[in-house]
Amino acid sequence: MKNNFKILTLSILSLVGVSSCTDLEIEETDSIISEGFQGLADPSSTVTNLYGSLAGQYAGQDNYFALQEVTSDEHLIPTRGGDWGDNGLWRVLHTHDWNGQHSFIVNVFQLWNGNQLQASQVLDSRSNPSTTNIGDASFIRAYSMWVILDNYGQVPYRDTSLPSSSVPEVLTGQAALDFILADIDTAIANAPATAAASGDANLRASKAAARYLKAKVLLNKHIYLGGSPEASDMAEVISLVDEITADGYALQEGYFDLFLPDADTETIWALEANTINKVVMGLHYNSTSIQGGGWNGFSTLAEFYDLFEGDAESNELDANQNPVDGQEERRGGVPTIGVEFADQPYASELDGYVNGSNVGYGFLINQQYDLDGTPLQDRQGAPLTFKRDFKDGAGNVNFINNDETTGIRIQKYAARNGEASISHQIVFRYADAHLMKAEAIFRSGGDPTAMINELRTIRNTQELLGTVTEQDILDERGRELYQEAWRRNDLIRFGQFGRDWLFKAEGTINNDDYNVFPIPQAQLLANPNLVQNPGY
């Protein structure tokens, strides 16, 4: 990895980390402290800080994003010479060979539990929260606790009415779900009803965002409790999505335009989180859209790329930026000639960018081109061609000793739009709600084929599906939601997180113990109510 690789994310993490603590102790921030917690002087300010913390936690390519994406078939970071080694930090996520000392596993447990503690402080009656404060804090606490439940299976919770020396109780299974769902219902009752395409209003909790979260929790409920999905839960998922639709949220054409900060009918909840890490993490050092180039790290597996329609060996765009090999819109393409930023939506905000972009949207494979159409070269003067395979200098498939060009790259928050200087990162999107409803219909014994094909038609696919299978639904979720931090959750729900893929460690294949991460050792020592998860 490049030595300067983490400058941006570490600065964010250092700011976020001071507001949380590993054993959920209450710290003397803006609280009134005497014997334990006595209330917040300014709960509105704490809510604003909480949204800022969430933005920081979403901005990075590490921590939460890495645990949801690099642990899946969607992302991997091969070691390229001296770059991206980091003592196996990235490799063990993709191979499922992690342990409780992994820094990302430790950080996510700490930071997201810190979110829910601060939200509890806001919700304490001694803080005199407003109705809006209650809506925001209930939503954030429910979301943060669900993230911990989904990733670790155990949620430590501190009652702010108890002495600060008390050990947090630990919620699991039905008790954790009951707590989270009660918070979501409180958020639905107190958050504003925000219509679609409301711009900045979609940066805070709304009834639609809380209903989306409740649908997500119910869709995954059987994963936390065991058994099969309950018909009543699936019926409620369908009803919740219908209520979101009634607020005007809907599928929208123009797939990559959805990730610009313009108001649209799909964004249910977004954060003011800078997107530069998502832009540069896969670009080569010689990518000319950005001064200084990219980080040349993140890639995707060929098997994931092959989920999309189009020629498996190419996805070039013509001079008018149109696909030339029949690929679907969501797969994007490689432009053979660049575009001037004067023609792009955010030309005036392109700090750090050159005068145009030679980088396409979506998946970048094979030869990459300069602004004038000249084929680019890597640092050794060889053609800059992103390859399907990961091979060392001897031509053997290998996770280490890769050259600069191995791996297909992804651009969703794209260099083409100058996203480095735009703070807008989607968390909840209507297309996901649409697919959650389709899945709930399927799991209830119904046929969601028309719903899946409705989405595929809007995304300009070449073919519609026949009778939809469970695998079709998972594949469609992969095509629609890649790089949006849902892949791990989806693979677990569809029973495929343990399946074999390139470089997966043999002992982890079909091992459900890895569906949750280990509890960090420091947390076990600080809270005897926590118990290490099986297999660790």
UniProtKB/TrEMBL annotation:
It is found in: Cell outer membrane. InterPro entries: SusD_RagB_dom, TPR-like_helical_dom_sf. SUPFAM superfamilies: TPR-like. Coiled coil: none annotated. Residues 266-536 form the RagB/SusD domain. It holds the Pfam family SusD_RagB. The keyword Translocase does not apply. Keywords: Cell outer membrane, Membrane, Signal. It comes from the Bacteria. One of its GO terms (cellular component) is cell outer membrane. Belongs to the SusD family. This is Starch-binding associating with outer membrane. It comes from Maribacter litoralis.
